Amino acid sequence: MSEFDTSLPSVRNIQNFIQEKNEVELKLVTDDLIVGKIVWQDVNCICLMDHYEQPTIVWRQAIVFIKPKP
Amino acid sequence: MSEFDTSLPSVRNIQNFIQEKNEVELKLVTDDLIVGKIVWQDVNCICLMDHYEQPTIVWRQAIVFIKPKP
Amino acid sequence: MSEFDTSLPSVRNIQNFIQEKNEVELKLVTDDLIVGKIVWQDVNCICLMDHYEQPTIVWRQAIVFIKPKP
Amino acid sequence: MSEFDTSLPSVRNIQNFIQEKNEVELKLVTDDLIVGKIVWQDVNCICLMDHYEQPTIVWRQAIVFIKPKP
Amino acid sequence: MSEFDTSLPSVRNIQNFIQEKNEVELKLVTDDLIVGKIVWQDVNCICLMDHYEQPTIVWRQAIVFIKPKP
Amino acid sequence: MSEFDTSLPSVRNIQNFIQEKNEVELKLVTDDLIVGKIVWQDVNCICLMDHYEQPTIVWRQAIVFIKPKP
Question: What is the ipTM of this complex?
């Protein structure tokens, strides 16, 4: 389980991606790379919205890395 | 272990999928993609019912993402 | 670590499989699918008995899903 | 982390394998299957001795299942 | 979840890599090897900056090993 | 997270490998096998020194087994 404290850099960075509507790449343990805008996060999950406005609720345990699109 | 607090977006979203009988796709760490309607969730598992009314009890630790079918 | 509270649906369902001697399929993180009857569960493991009355003690952390055989 | 309480079936079963010097198969998350006699267990690890009296200290987190050799 | 106590060798070593701007290799559970300079760490994540000054926020749970480049 | 209590066999064994400068094989979840001498351990990591005196900081969560070289 992740710690979910809004003063942590990891939590704040994601909060910034949400506010600034940054497009991000999310690499998953299955080696999938999904792309979209993060719309919310909680202690268990991060929700990504793709180009077709379809949400994907990603479990934090399955995340390998997040990269903001340059 | 996941946190199971019904005020969390991740828990509420799944609760909505149950109530609205949304069909969802569940991606698993084994790269399997299973499709069905969620019938219950608890702190350990999510139970999916397929088209033949057969249940699959999925461990939360094995979930990568959930996508409601558009 | 799983929560092991007998009032949870996930724990009760497995308890029912034990009492009713249901045959189940257990999908594991290694992609193995093992078949048998569950004979006991505790907070760490689930024990499956195959057709030759050979036990397999499966770690909960390695379980992806359980499906009762129809 | 596993619970390590000697009254648990999973812990007692392994204690029996140690005392009765049962040969066991250990399936690991890397899909390796190692064979030997368990010589000790603690909350983190299980130690297996092979035919050449070489020990392997296996992390519990990496165990998928244990099967006593028939 | 990792322990995040700055007196631990693992946390201090990474703190040193940050201060000395060491280039490191990070091996991930997906078998990816990413190279860069660590710019921050918290209890959940480690942030790596690549040659193009692009950040990658890596989840600790997905790290296999870190090697400073010789 | 592992328990890190120096009275545990798993922690003591590694402490012995450090003191006796035993060469060990470390099998990782990515199926890598790395060889070297353990130079320190803490609750999160184990540090291995290879033949070229290059350190590798291995996350405990990624360890499958340790084998002392015979």
Answer: 0.93
